Amino acid sequence: MDGASRTAPASVAVVGAGYVGTPTALVLASFGHRVWLAERDSARRAALASGRSMALEEGLEELLVEQLAAGRLELTERAADAARLASFCFVCVATPTGPDGRADLSDLFSVVDELRSHLAPGAILVTKSTVPPGTAEEIAARLGRPDVAVVSNPEFLREGSAISDTQRPDRTVVGSADEAAARAVAELFAPTGAPVVVTDTRTAELIKYGANAFLATKLSYINSLADLATRLGADVAALSRGLGLDPRIGSSFLRPGPGWGGPCLPKDAAALLAVAEDAGVSLSLVEAAIAANAAHQDAVVRDIAGLAGPQGRVAVLGVSFKAHTRDRRDSPSLAVARQLVAEGLHLVAYDPSVPAGDPELAALGLSSVASVAEAARGADVIAALTEWPEFADLDWAGLGGLVARRLAYDARGIFDARAARDAGFRVLGLAAR
Ligand code: UDX
Questions:
Q1: Residue identifier of the C-alpha nearest atom 28 of ligand 1
Q2: Comparing C-alpha atoms, which of 101, 90, 25, 98 is closest to residue 64?
Q3: Residue 173 DSSP one-character state
Q4: Residue 156 beta carbon below 6 angstroms from any ligand 1 atom
Q5: Which of 48, 82, 192, 425 has its CA 20 to 30 A from that of 297?
Q6: Percent of the chain residues past pLDDT 90, beyond the cut
Q7: DSSP reduced 3-state for 294
Q8: Residue 81 CA: distances (Å) to CA of 22, 35, 86, 120, 163
């Protein structure tokens, strides 16, 4: 990034050093602002203070070390301490799914309560956490600080590319009842060069849910079409390319997989349905996308289980919800693996982000090993569930000498199917041509 902000440096508080708060704090610091990052988890705070991140994020640790050294970033335990001197206070805490599918806002509201008497006069409170439409109004009422404007500024970053997505977002969305406050927040991100959408808070909040539910729907569509294509003997990769080159469709989010998941898409699709239900509106398309995702995962499980045979042994390649992250929350790969375990299959997993003997995986009935070769030893099927780049370049001839049967199942279109076939493997799944 070319560094200095076009605007005067501001004092910024960021509450929550998670997947959203940390990149937000770092990128704002790199734009020249003075940033206080509040994190109540002492282990996470200590790691960050020594230049380490718990997440696998390209460029994050470099930026962290740089901004700490430049003295533009400071870590605090309490939100109140971060906010005291700040003109802008970003709230970036988790809003997980509650028992009824609705977003659980309890962490967010307790931060608001903590900030109430500590926000500087005339400060701007910015919500980056993903929240249902109407939440900013609720925050303003709960805060009871007429001098503090509330701005909704949803985040669209993806895990694994959080820094570059924050430095170069597709758009900056700012919603507020106070337009000047919304524009002041957008101005902080002016160095990104992204187009700005200035709107009211409800619209800003709905844009985030609407975007994630759209992406989920697009993925369910391509996954369902991929199921059909494999049954018809059509080429899934060419199908996806042939559709995506139409700019009205667009080529991103057209890569079939074992279903969509992760910490955001499932949670936000469910929360949007709850919002629609409360408003008396039927979003049957989003409901269908969720149902199609479950059906697609079942189909993947049936295919792999059918190949492996009763009590068969499966080498599972990849358990994180996508490549370039070690996050396994709502991972479709792990969901498939768990169902296979429940079917009585014997699973040995390899994922570059998981150490051998991972206790969490062991508790789910999966043993984890340190290489593809170890996973493949004695396997009936080698199944790619997460698209880690190294799975595109496997030594199929070498693996052929280790497995019990030369069967490969590719749920991500990542295998070099020709190389696998040349080594005597039958390749099925989404790259089965
Ligand atoms: C998502 C949104 O993309 C992001 O804008 C929002 O801020 C947070 O939620 P993220 O959860 O990091 O980001 O993951 P994303 O890259 O969107 O992938 C979501 C799921 O879809 C993963 O399971 C991924 O494997 C799957 N996916 C994505 C596909 O199967 N095919 C694709 O072409 C793209």
A1: 253
A2: 25
A3: E
A4: yes
A5: 425
A6: 94
A7: helix
A8: 17, 12, 10, 11, 25
Cα–Cα distance for residue pair 45/168, rounded to 1 Å? 26
Write a three-state SS string for 95-119: CCECCCCCECCHHHHHHHHHHCCCC
Structure-token pair, residue 44: 């996470």
Q: Say which residues have a Cβ less than 8 Å from residue 30's Cβ, sequence separation at least 6.
A: 1, 3, 63, 66, 67, 72, 167
**Residue 239 confidence (pLDDT) above 60:** yes
Whole-angstrom Cα distance, residue 227 to residue 331?
20
Please choose from 254, 322, 385 the residue to mutate so as to test ligand 1's pocket, defined by most ligand atoms within 8 A of CB: 322
Compute how many other C-beta atoms are within 10 angstroms of the C-beta atom of residue 113.
Answer: 12
- What rounded mean pLDDT belongs to the chain? 96
Q: What DSSP state is assigned to residue 120?
A: P
* Alpha-carbon span 133 to 278, nearest angstrom: 11
- Residue closest via CA to ligand 1's atom 13 equals 158
Please name the amino acid found at residue 166: T
Spacing, Cα 100 to ligand 1 middle (Å)? 23
For residue 141, give both structure tokens. 């009422």
Residue nearest (by alpha carbon) to ligand 1 atom 17:
158
- Residue 195: exposure state from Cβ atoms within 10 A (0-12, 13-18, ≥19): exposed
| Residue 334 in contact with ligand 1 by CB distance below 6 A | no
Pairing of strands 407-410, 381-384: parallel
Distance of alpha carbon 145 from alpha carbon 121, whole angstroms: 9
Query: Any idea which residue has 């070319």 for tokens?
Result: 2
pLDDT (tens digit per residue) in 388-426: 999 999 999 999 999 999 999 999 999 999 999 999 999
For residues 333-364, one letter each, b for 16 or more C-beta atoms within 10 angstroms of the residue's C-beta and e for the rest, the string is bbbbbbbbbebebbbbbbbbbbeeebeebeeb
Query: In angstroms, rounded to a whole number, what is the distance separating the alpha carbons of residues 327 and 241?
Result: 28
Separation between Cα atoms, residue 140 and residue 177, nearest integer Å: 10
Q: Which amino acid is at 273?
A: L
CB distance 261 to ligand 1 below 6 Å? yes
